[in-house]
Amino acid sequence: MSSHSHPVTDATATRPVEFKIWRGDAKGGAFEQYTAQVTGGMVVLDCIHQVQAEQAPDLACRWNCKAGKCGSCSAEINGKPSLMCMTRMDTLPADQPVTVEPLRAFPSIRDLVTDVSWNYEVKKKIVPFKPREPDRPDGTWTVFQEDVERVQEFRKCIECFLCQDVCHVLRDHHKHDEFIGPRFLVYTAALEMHPLDTADRIADLKERDGIGYCNIGKCCTKVCPESITITDNAIIPLKERVVDEFYDPITRLLRIFRPK
Amino acid sequence: MSVPEAIVHEHDVIVIGAGGAGLRAAIEASAGGAKVAVICKSLLGKAHTVMAEGGMAAAMGHVDDRDNWEVHFSDTMRGGGYLNNWVMAEHHAKEAPDRVRELEAWGAVFDRTKDGRILQRHFGGHRYQRLAHVGDRTGLEMIRTLQDHGVHQGLDVYMEMTVVALLTSGGRIAGVLGYDRERGRLRVWRAGAVILATGGIGKAYRITSNSWEYTGDGQALAYEAGAEIMDMEFIQFHPTGMVWPPSVRGLLVTEGVRGEGGALRNSEGRRFMWDDIPEAYKNQVALDEEEAWRYVCGDKSAQRPAELLTRDHVARCINREVKAGRGSPHGGVFLDIAWIKSRVPNGEEHIKKKLPSMYHQFMQLAGVDITKEAMEVGPTTHYCMGGVRVDGDTQMSSVPGLFAAGEVAAGLHGANRLGGNSLSDLVVFGKRAGEHAARWAKEHGAAPVDSAQVEAETARALAPFDRPNGENPYAIQSDLQDVMQRLVGMVRTKSELEEALGHLDSLRARAAKCGVSGHREYHPGWHTAIDLRNLLHVSEMITKSALLRPESRGGHFREDFPAKSEECTGFNLVARRADDGSMDIDRRQRAPIRPDLQAIIERMK
Question: Contact, A237 vs A193, CB < 8 A?
């Protein structure tokens, strides 16, 4: 995510921009050409809506909040996995058409909408949160800000699945049956590093979730609209835990005597 | 049932909507032994709750031990102009702390106090620091916690569904008719009880903080099923939405900015909120900016900044400044958080840490660095205080077996909602609705589905396809938003409201002839045609109710009746479909408040 963008000026001039939008379904499709009238501050999703309202009422796309908070409008813009609502038109090259296509790591439903149900199935299988006994008689816990900050970073995730889309293990090698992808490694990290959690997911990470497939290319980190440091803060520490648990008998022995 | 096309599902309880209220209701109904289905308009986890920023109000007293449920109750009633359902306001104030603690037990990670408890922040209209929060993304934390907990509770979740009708039988609820958007297949969900948790109506307006889903579906479905809809004249215009660039006009700027010390200024640099302090709050506002800053820093002897008055009032003051020519370049006013750098060490980092989403929102969408420059903000349609009239204990509507919780229900907030009272509303009354719906379904079982109703409603839902050359539904929705924004907005007057009713009639006539062409699969034009039916119902409710309340109170301001009226304190307005299909609005006398609750209000004045 670019953290800096130009201020939007008062220029009200409208410029036509060519769009190539992928239209089709599971059986196949092609790019179709549209023209949007773009003014200052507009984002890609505004253009898609304009096309929908004026030229193609049946153009399918998902969106909800239009504020970068719900993670619904994920697509590939000029080949880069992005949120349509947070991609400003003036950040894209002005001299070439803008291509918009669906996420390619998941099956197509129609136009820009893909079937992301696999993600929901994966999440269900991850061992849920299990807190320790409450610290206080009123059923609450004593936890300090510095103890929760690491987990709060992971919990910023809006489940846009852009990280899943860009991950070569899923996108190119289609290992959906053997690898849970960066999103669910982050989810697992949020549970494993939760200061109250008592469950153990390390064996699952190794045996079932395929953490070994990740070769820390960091593409996921680069596309995360919430700037979560997926690889360094979530995946690598989990890999270390797997190593500790399964490959280092001394560390493993020590872990028995050490609080989680 | 003789509808060959529809797929039929059988459950005990159907929850429509998967935001905070819907998920909490579903979890509770499931815990009560019911077989539960959750029908989502979008994907699970994307509902409008994710956009809630500031926090959830609960009198836990972690930061200020003077706080308790009685203070919270009286704040809520005062903020609501005393038109609240006081039974609900009492439950809410008493139960909110338990609902926060429950979220923590389910994995939510709130910001912490120095002694390791859940931190609470200041917000408008709340006397003490009361909002449990996670930076400025509290809603995301809530929905994700409920979602991740809920999927292990045996709920059947149906995503990306559109509900087109509530099915009734002999005056009680029997189920739900809808279709899946992926394929456009009609589905019938049979159930003993149905809980509406569909949220608000923001998309009836041009400028709104609400997402596309907020098209008044629950209010309209309930109305068509014969339920009573109350308080629809009360619409909350949040004082601080983005105003620039046009593409993001209306996008919410959290009240948390003001809670952290943000100052509202006009073009002359004046903190104009001090120019007009309402009588009910005159003892609760700081005398000057110095005292206000001490309040922000947690000084218990200080009173709040005038920026933290209730939303209805702040929005009107902003409106006044803009109209008087003292606005910002793009028709708002300035909201300045950068100034606190002169008061806190490492100010830039402090702002980014406390308001990370706001920092990114302005940086990315407007190219404005809020640690250096003031934001431009103005009012945006944010919340509907009105909705389905429910029993304050059970959340059941006037249609047996039909329940409502969260924004779609009326009562808790009266004429104006306090910030932070929405997230707590969702879980307090979501839980109550789930519990009572499960019990009701168990006691009464399922009712037979009337196949004639299913056939008629199916035909109505598919009718736009019979008119492939009909008018584009997007154009009608757009015109509707203009009418509501222009004539039924923050400042209302009789002649404009009557003009709006005329426009609504012609929009309704156009909507009856709108059409879509092509296939049923994931067809957004078709979905818009269905949304339009709901938007027209709620727009009519808002406009008619606004005409029939000749006073100004909370989210309802009449230029021709600018003061509160004693007489109007005595009733709520209730909309209901008459036998001839027209909309009836009548005055419902309010039940006298319980004396012990009245005594609390008097004591807190």
Answer: yes
